[in-house]
Amino acid sequence: MQSQNSNYTSLDDITDPRAWVAQHADYLYKYALTRINDEELVRDLVQETFLTALERLQKFEGKSTEHAWLTAILKNKIVDVYRKKASSFVKEPAVTFAEYETDDFFEPDAHNWKPDHRPAEFGMEQTDHLESKEFELILQRCLKKMPSLWFSVFTMKHLDDEPADTICNHLRISPSNFWVIIHRAKLSLRECLQKNWI
Amino acid sequence: MDELTKIAYNCKKATYLIEKQHIGEITLREKLELKIHLAGCRVCRIFQQQSTAINRMIKNMFHQSVAGNIKLDDKFKDELQHMIDEQLEK
After folding, report:
1. Do residues A94 and A188 both lie within one domain?
2. Chain B residues whose beta carbon lies within 8 Å of the beta carbon of residue A74
3. Are residues A98 and A187 in the same domain?
4. In sequence order, which ranges of chain A are alpha helices (DSSP H)?
5. Quick one: A114 and A147 in the same domain?
6. Is the pLDDT of residue A45 over 90?
7. Cβ–Cβ below 8 Å for A51 and B87
8. What ipTM was assigned to the predicted interfaces of this complex?
9. How far is B17 from chain A (nearest CA, A)?
């Protein structure tokens, strides 16, 4: 016990685990909550992040900040969640339905827009509508409606700006599948916004 | 249908290329195809504007929510603190 405590002492300058909760817990919680839509699971992930960090404490050399280090551990755990779901994604009924739905936006032969699904200007093209709480709520609701595979791909790309091949590896999907998902996710999100905003 | 007409009609392909170009790369030929299509298709030009706006808004929204006021409840924080203290004393 004595020897271990002295080991921690050598780390004291760069990190103090006893202050982690006060300094980082809220941020880690928010970080995960924007990426995974499940509060219970997110709390578990925050807890696991601290446990993993404690296990690896001796390997933390202070090359990155404590904040960046903890966030990186959490991020890996989020990707693990995405990946675990990925195998069941393939058969996810929501995906099949959403694919069918977005195909239905276009005429079967020439692939031009069907009249009912044509994008129309709805006043969000030039200015940010984020000041409008109402629009933000609609955007959030539309994001939540996405099949979870699409949401994972979408989040990794648009939020974390991961390269396409990294996302494909993490989620074990093919590059062509990746682009199809990016395309369809946007089609369906845009349609959802138009339907609910106008 | 000749090649040009096909390009002019194919909004599905054009929107695919818009998305692909936005976050990755498309070939020169694809760029040309997209240009030709967009020159004649107002609806896809609207799609392109909206798609860019959506990307920007989503980024902003996520950044705001990370900067926002959501907090873990104190009870759970106490549990986390207790867990860390226990681990350190092992």
Report:
1. yes
2. none
3. yes
4. 2-11, 20-33, 39-55, 66-89, 93-103, 133-145, 148-158, 164-171, 175-197
5. yes
6. yes
7. yes
8. 0.85
9. 8
